[in-house]
Amino acid sequence: MTDSVQPQHPSPHRGRVGLPAQLFGLAAGPAAWIAQLIVDYGLSSYACFPKDAPRLASPPPGWSGEHLWLLAVNLACLALAAAGFASAYGGWRLTRAEKRGDAHEMLEIGEGRARFLAICGMLASAVFAIAILFDTLPILGLAACWQVAR
C-alpha cells in the first residue's frame, strides 16, 4: 500500500494577497528612489546650469523656491516608498499562517512564496526609503548650486 499524500502548493495562501499588491510592495521603494533621483537632478541641474555656462547667482532668478520644490518631491517619493512598505507588510500579515502539508507544522519565515515576496517588498521599501532620506539631507543644509554663502 502506498501512502497517497497530495503535494501542497508552495504558497497555499497566495489567493489572500493579489499579484498587483505584491508587485507594488516590491517595486514602490525602488521606483520612488529612481523618480526622486531623476526629478531632483533635473530641477537642480537646470537651476544651476541652464545653458553653456553655470549660473553664478545663488539662488538663480526665479528659482528661490528650489529647495521647497526639491523637498516636496523627496517627501512625495518617501510617501510612495512608505506605501510600498505598508502594502508589503499587509501581505506579510495575511500570509503569516502559511503551513506546510501538516496542519501543525508552521513554515519558516519566508518559506511560502507570497510571504517571501512580502518580506522582500518590506526590505526593499525600507532600504530605499532610507536612501531617499539620505538624499533629502543635503537639500536642507546646502545652498543652491553648491555655492558657499559669502
Architecture overview:
The protein has one domain (19-49, 56-95, 110-146). With 150 residues, the chain is mainly alpha-helical. The relative contact order is 0.22. Helix 1 runs antiparallel to helix 2 (66-94). The termini are far apart. The chain has helices at 19-48, 66-94, 113-141. The radius of gyration is 23 Å and the shape is elongated. Helix content is 59%, strand content 0%.
Task: Give the helix/strand layout.
Elements: H1 19-48, H2 66-94, H3 113-141
Helix pairs in contact: 1-2, 1-3, 2-3
Structure keywords:
about 0% strand; single chain; mainly alpha; elongated; 3 helices; about 150 residues
In short:
The chain has 150 residues and is an all-alpha fold. It has one domain (19-49, 56-95, 110-146). Helix content is 59%, strand content 0%.
The sequence of SSEs as H and E is HHH
- SS content category: mainly alpha
How would you state the average pLDDT, rounded? Answer: 78
Q: How many β-strands, per DSSP?
A: 0
Number of helices: 3
Head-to-tail CA distance between termini: 90 Å
Q: Major sheet: size, sense and barrel closure?
A: none
